[in-house]
């Protein structure tokens, strides 16, 4: 029973950890505004939103497992087992779908970024939030423009050039545009790298969680059978 209580506590702690990491990724300003601003319906952070939901469910199941072990309740242990099994099956299904639609996901991300290029040169209010988001991203990651460099800003360049002004004395990462020294590298590759990094974090959590879930299934069924034999 001690092992099952520990397993339940481990699931509870894992749920808290998953929630914490997923929420950190979700609220992180590193490129989130660039991806979610604009007029595209695609949201690359949908996997993180799902992970937040999974973390919350795992916390509830962990609590259920602890109570079931301490009270030796077969009903609670069975609910814990079924819930954990369903989550594991959903994770496997999500992993298969993610692998199958990987190219489509990359295409959607590319379309999102390329569609938002026109927002940089617009004077309408619809593009203000995206322009501010990219300005912050440029300043932090030392890049300029989204796809074609500083030219993406069009007539708005003079308003936002400070965020991509290049101060590199060697000049290897700088270029001149409209008599201003700006960063040569567009931001699109850095945004893609950032998304890839976040995806790796999500995958790592999912694999670690799967191992814990399998252990939870084994221990809960063993204890369920032991209680039934008493």
Structural account:
- The chain has helices at 2-27, 32-36, 46-71, 74-100, 102-121, 128-141, 157-160, 188-229, and strands at 174-177, 180-183.
- The protein has 230 residues and is mostly helical.
- Strands 1-2 form a two-stranded antiparallel sheet.
- A hairpin with a 2-residue loop joins strand 1 (174-177) and strand 2.
- Helix 1 (2-27) runs antiparallel to helix 3, helix 3 (46-71) runs antiparallel to helix 4 (74-100) and helix 3 (46-71) packs parallel to helix 8 (188-229).
- The longest helix has 42 residues, at 188-229.
- The model has no long low-confidence stretch (mean pLDDT 78).
- It is a multi-pass membrane protein.
- InterPro entries: Tetraspanin/Peripherin, Tetraspanin_animals, Tetraspanin_CS, Tetraspanin_EC2_sf.
- This is Tetraspanin.
- It is found in: Cell membrane; Membrane.
- Its main location: membrane.
Strand content: under 5%
Assign a percent range to the helix content: over 70%
> How would you characterize the largest beta sheet?
2 strands, antiparallel
- Low-pLDDT parts are none
Order of helices and strands: HHHHHHHEEH
Oligomer: single chain
- The N- to C-terminal Cα distance equals 13 Å
Shape designation = elongated
DSSP helical segment count: 8
Radius of gyration, in Å, reads: 24 Å
> How many runs of DSSP E, i.e. beta strands?
2
Structural class: mainly alpha
Give the integer mean of the pLDDT values: 78
- Which strand order spans the largest sheet, edge to edge or round the barrel? 1-2
Disulfide bonds: 143-174, 144-164
Transmembrane segments: 46-70, 77-101, 199-224
Protein name: Tetraspanin
Subcellular location: Cell membrane; Membrane
């Amino acid at each position: 029973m001690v092992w099952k209580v520990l397993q339940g506590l481990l699931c509870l702690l894992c749920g808290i950890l998953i929630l914490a990491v997923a929420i950190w990724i979700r609220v992180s300003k590193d490129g989130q505004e660039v991806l979610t601003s604009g007029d595209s319906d695609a949201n690359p952070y949908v996997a993180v939103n799902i992970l937040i939901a999974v973390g919350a469910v795992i916390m509830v199941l962990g609590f259920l497992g602890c109570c079931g072990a301490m009270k030796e309740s077969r009903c609670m242990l069975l609910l814990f087992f079924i819930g954990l099994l369903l989550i594991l099956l959903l994770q496997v299904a999500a992993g298969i779908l993610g692998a199958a639609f990987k190219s489509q996901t990359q295409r959607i991300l590319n379309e999102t970024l390329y569609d938002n290029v026109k927002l940089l040169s617009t004077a309408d209010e619809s593009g203000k939030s995206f322009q501010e988001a990219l300005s912050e991203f440029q300043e932090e990651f030392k890049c300029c423009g989204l796809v074609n460099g500083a030219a993406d800003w069009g007539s708005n360049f003079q308003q936002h050039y400070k965020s991509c002004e290049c101060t590199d004395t060697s000049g290897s990462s700088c270029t001149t545009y409209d008599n201003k020294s700006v960063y040569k590298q567009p931001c699109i590759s850095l945004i893609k790298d950032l998304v890839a990094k976040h995806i790796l974090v999500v995958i790592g959590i999912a694999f670690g969680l799967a191992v814990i879930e399998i252990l939870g299934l084994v221990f809960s069924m063993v204890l369920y059978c032991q209680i039934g034999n008493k």
